[in-house]
User: Which sequence fits this backbone?
């Protein structure tokens, strides 16, 4: 469990982005308020305590994520509390009109509905978002999906953080998250490791994938594509921009997907891995110019 609050990590990361690339300042201000609110809610839940599911080793061994098939209604109140805080911010960021905001506010005030959306997202039931009781002419399924992801994030992140060591001990070799089944939004190489034995420092550099929904980090082999599993060096490639080798694009020419990677051995303090992506858009642009698409689409990496 991290000793640094999520809110502090986001603040530090956003400030670093503004200083390093002033052109990204407006973007950091716009989406940064969402990351800050999510982190604040996560920190509050960690203080209050959050219910966690049991981890079934047999299900994990069979490839089923921890939350797959779990009834999310036990977190319904947490999710509606999250919606109350986040919806006004998301309405501003997404420039939703008053009618849409009012419709969403009523819809996401019911624990059964908001927990059902979270469960549908985890289980990949995209039809659920199309069949929701929110009028489709008012709120599109894509908008509802994105908002439900953001609303779910602080609750899921708190669950992950509370589970802690029990997750890190799992054996999981898949390119999707062992907790919620989502795809990664970024990968990272682990920082140098200080041991208790005379303060020896290890090399670090182990590869981890970072979940786009619940924020869990899980170990993954360095030479494989998380999207399709391709480990052929002839069809995989690494791109750098401006010779900044600790920030890179890992591309797979077999499936046409890419994932950003950051080497945490070169980062101090450790950045928030969600917010840091706002400062790496030049990598997304370069990847798109090379006819690649992201493993996980976001509002800022999907370019027309």
Assistant:
């Amino acid at each position: 469990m991290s000793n640094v609050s999520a809110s502090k990590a986001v603040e530090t990361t956003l400030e670093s982005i503004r200083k390093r690339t002033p052109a990204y300042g407006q973007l950091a201000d716009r989406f940064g308020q969402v990351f800050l609110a999510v982190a604040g809610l996560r920190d509050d839940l960690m203080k209050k305590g959050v219910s966690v599911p049991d981890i079934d080793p047999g299900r994990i061994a069979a490839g089923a994520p921890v939350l797959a098939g779990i009834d999310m209604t036990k977190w319904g109140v947490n999710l509606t509390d999250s919606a109350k805080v986040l919806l006004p911010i998301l309405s501003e960021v997404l420039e939703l009109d008053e009618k849409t905001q009012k419709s969403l506010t009523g819809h996401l005030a019911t624990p059964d509905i908001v927990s059902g959306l979270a469960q549908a997202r985890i289980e990949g039931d995209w039809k659920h978002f199309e069949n929701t009781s929110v009028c489709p002419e008012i709120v599109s399924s894509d908008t509802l999906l994105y908002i439900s992801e953001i609303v779910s994030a602080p609750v899921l992140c708190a669950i992950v953080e509370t589970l802690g060591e029990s997750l890190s001990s799992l054996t999981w070799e898949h390119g999707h998250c062992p907790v919620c089944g989502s795809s990664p939004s970024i990968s990272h190489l682990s920082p140098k490791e200080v041991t208790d034995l005379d303060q020896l420092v290890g090399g670090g550099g182990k590869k981890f994938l970072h979940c786009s929904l619940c924020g869990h980090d899980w170990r993954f082999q360095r030479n494989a594509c998380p999207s399709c599993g391709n480990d052929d060096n002839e069809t995989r490639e690494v791109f750098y921009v401006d010779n900044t080798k600790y920030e890179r694009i890992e591309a797979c020419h077999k499936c046409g997907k890419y994932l950003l990677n950051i080497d945490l051995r070169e980062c101090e303090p450790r950045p928030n891995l969600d917010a840091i992506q706002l400062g790496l858009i030049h990598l997304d642009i370069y990847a798109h110019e090379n006819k690649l698409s992201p493993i996980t689409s976001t509002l800022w990496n999907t370019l027309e």
About this structure: The chain has a mean pLDDT of 91. The first strand starts at residue 184 and ends at 189. The beta strands are 184-189, 193-194, 201-202, 207-211, 217-219, 236-240, 247-252, 257-263, 293-294.
